[in-house]
Amino acid sequence: MLPGIDEGLWVHAILMVELVAQAGTTAHLLLSRRDVSSTVGWAALVILAPILGLTLYWLLGINRITRKAHRLRPETSAASDHAELVGERRAHRALQSEYPNLARLGHLGDALTGLPLVAGNRVEPLVDGDRAYPRMLEAIDQARKTVGLSTYIFDNDAAGALFADALERAHRRGVSVRVLIDGVGQRYSRPPMPRVLRRRGIPTQAFLVALLPVKSQYLNLRNHRKILVVDGRIGFTGGLNIREGCLLASRPRHPIRDLHLRVEGPVVRFLVEAFALDWTFTTGERLGGDLWYPVLEPIGATLARGVPDGPDEDFDIIRRMILGALTTARWRVRIVSPYFLPDQALITALNVTALRGVEVQVLMPERNNLKLVQWAAQAQADQLLEAGCRIWRSPPPFDHTKLMLVDDAWCFLGSANWDPRSLRLNFEYNLECYDRYLARRFHALLDARIAASRELGIDELVGRPLPLKLRDGFARLFSPYL
Questions:
Q1: Which segments of 314-422 are extended strands (E)?
Q2: Which of 18, 171, 175, 240 is the most buried (most CB within 10 A)?
Q3: CA 361 to chain CA mean position, Å
Q4: Residues 6 or more apart from 112 whose CB is under 8 A from it?
Q5: 458 membership: H or E segment, kind and range
Q6: 366-398: per-residue pLDDT in tens?
Q7: How far does the chain reach from its first CA to its final CA, in angstroms?
Q8: Kind of pairing, strands 403-406 and 410-414?
Q9: What is the CA radius of gyration of the chain?
Q10: pTM confidence score
Q11: Nearest of 137, 423, 76, 83 to residue 277 by alpha carbon
Q12: What residue ranges of the chain have pLDDT lower than 70?
């Protein structure tokens, strides 16, 4: 304290600064485009706990992503642009003739994403890392021109070493390799893989390195996408991170079930574009031309579209796609999500879907790796069960799959969970597919998992001891931030 200045003046000055900061932050909240519950929650925290609230809001509560996607679009080739247009026309003809009940859902995807539905794709499900990793490594080893890899977690472990070796081999034989790892996801192991890969000469960057030196999935604006594209012709996407826990055959300490896709055909172009956009945003380097965007001929029967989502121009796309799919469903909706925390609008949509006679089934883990999420999910499960939705809990290993099926043809799979973090804050990537044969394969997979799971009944929830109900109800208060 400076000599000669009354202590009371200091107190008044500090209080005045605090009031001005609170007023300015509240004004910022009121002018920002966020939902009412989030606004009220942040405002209450800022007013009731000023120091904590102001610090958390200005550190974590603001979306500082100001990128304009159209400014970062890579320069594609004229031939690939023409092929995309032809594929789009074929897809909408096929949608109208083969899936007339889903045609309006296809038009919704057009309007939300600005990306076309394209025909002629081959989509192959790969269950767990035991099946997916060998196919991914094989593709990298066969790469001749380009490899782009984006992932949330790339652990420095046995699985990570397999990919690091394959990427280094590709780099040494002259393939243009680019690797993007999330700034928080890189901290799940030591030393972080960006450092390891750069030492091997592989161009690698971390996406939005976090301000705080911690590994927390609760830090905002993470790149949660999982994309591998090879020579612009073969793509992989889904829920798989790169870590040894996904290799179930090796009996890891913390086993993780998951689902990934191997993709060929015109839709691979959009996986490349999503990766290239994130790479350009992070590094400034544009990836374009025939090396990254070759002409892709039809190779299968699946109609498909890439669906990017993030806190930028793609905001809220996946959530609105889900809402549109629920209104389209005629007899069955099936959902698998490790973190199932739908907001009130999604809960209402699920309930209305069930009340109009559509079977709604949800599969979530019996034991979640995030206890707060599990408790919050239990606190709101009764709202779904009372409307006729059915919930199953899958036994270990922890099921990290993110999948939604509507009726007998529409499949929605990728990196996005059914929680506010995925649907509001993270950069995510899903694949939308129209294919009865593919849907049958996914339904068979779910049939087997549900058969091995335990159905949750309303009596079980009502019969919980009061302390557990209070714990779960308290956890649910944090659901907008989980």
A1: 332-336, 359-365, 390-394, 398-399, 403-406, 410-414
A2: 240
A3: 21
A4: 307, 317, 320, 321
A5: helix 458-462
A6: 999 989 999 999 999 999 999 999 999 999 999
A7: 41
A8: antiparallel
A9: 23
A10: 0.88
A11: 76
A12: 1-8, 10-11, 33-35, 37, 59-88, 210-220, 481-482
